[in-house]
Amino acid sequence: MLGQHGRGITRALFTAPARGLARIGVTPNMLTVAGTVATIAVAVLTLPQGRFVLGPVLLALVLIGDSFDGILARLTGTSSPFGAFLDSTMDRLADGAVFGSLAVWAALHLQAGPLRTWTVAIAVATVVLAAAVPYARARAESVGASAAVGIAERTDRLIVTAVGVLAVGLGAPAWVLTAALALVAVGSLITVMQRVTTVHQQLTGPAAVTHP
């Protein structure tokens, strides 16, 4: 949802820097891989240790940089099916590193009890559900349908998570992060359901019936 509205802003802000990258020979795929490596490194090196101010700030910078690969591909006319495949695959690795690192933090730093149990469980569920959202879209497209709908795109999920992490880093109670992760998990589940419903309508509804 936020991602859809923010694309125009990112294009306006980052088109000129992307042109500069193109002039020095940087390719979209280079940026995609570099952004993933940076995200995983930041997540693993900050979040499990509870560095909840530094981590979100660095992740936000990496997320902004992640916008460059698509803009660069459009500017240079190098958009390709492989590039889209690589970008989606790398995003799944990066997201898994973020949510998995938060599960590790909860397991290592929260006191034994219901909060720790719920936080770890929700973080692990978020790893799965966040990956299911783009999978549903990709699988829909593979069977000739379209599933570009839903309330929780990748940008939405990461922003909500980052806000929860930063809030705890600034002194909020740990349950704030648990609530943020729960919101991401529920939003992801709803998005998957929206996509399943949309594809069901496309493939089994009246418009899908072929008349002789």
Automatic annotation (TrEMBL):
Quote the Gene3D superfamilies the UniProt record gives.
1.20.120.1760
Q: How does it sit in the membrane?
A: Multi-pass membrane protein
Annotated transmembrane regions: 21-47, 53-72, 93-112, 118-137, 158-186
Question: Residues that bind Mg(2+) 2, according to the entry?
Answer: 66, 87, 91
Cited PROSITE patterns: CDP_ALCOHOL_P_TRANSF
Q: Which InterPro entries match?
A: CDP-OH_P_trans, CDP-OH_PTrfase_TM_dom, CDP_ALCOHOL_P_TRANSF_CS, PIP_synthase_PgsA1
Q: Its pathway?
A: Lipid metabolism; Phospholipid metabolism; phosphatidylinositol phosphate biosynthesis
**Binding annotation for Mg(2+) 1:** 66, 69, 87
Q: How is the cofactor bound?
A: Contains a di-nuclear catalytic Mg(2+) center.
EC number(s): the record gives: 2.7.8.-
Q: Name one Pfam family in it.
A: CDP-OH_P_transf
| Function (record text) | Catalyzes the conjugation of the 1'-hydroxyl group of D-myo-inositol-3-phosphate (also named L-myo-inositol-1-phosphate) with a lipid tail of cytidine diphosphate diacylglycerol (CDP-DAG), forming phosphatidylinositol phosphate (PIP) and CMP. PIP is a precursor of phosphatidylinositol (PI) which is an essential lipid required for cell wall formation.
Q: Which NCBIfam families match?
A: PIPSynth
Subunit structure, as described in the record: Homodimer.
| Family listed | Belongs to the CDP-alcohol phosphatidyltransferase class-I family.
What is the name of this protein?
Phosphatidylinositol phosphate synthase
Task: Give the species this sequence originates from.
Answer: Actinomyces ruminis
Q: Which lineage do the record's taxonomy fields give for this organism?
A: Bacteria, Bacillati, Actinomycetota, Actinomycetes, Actinomycetales
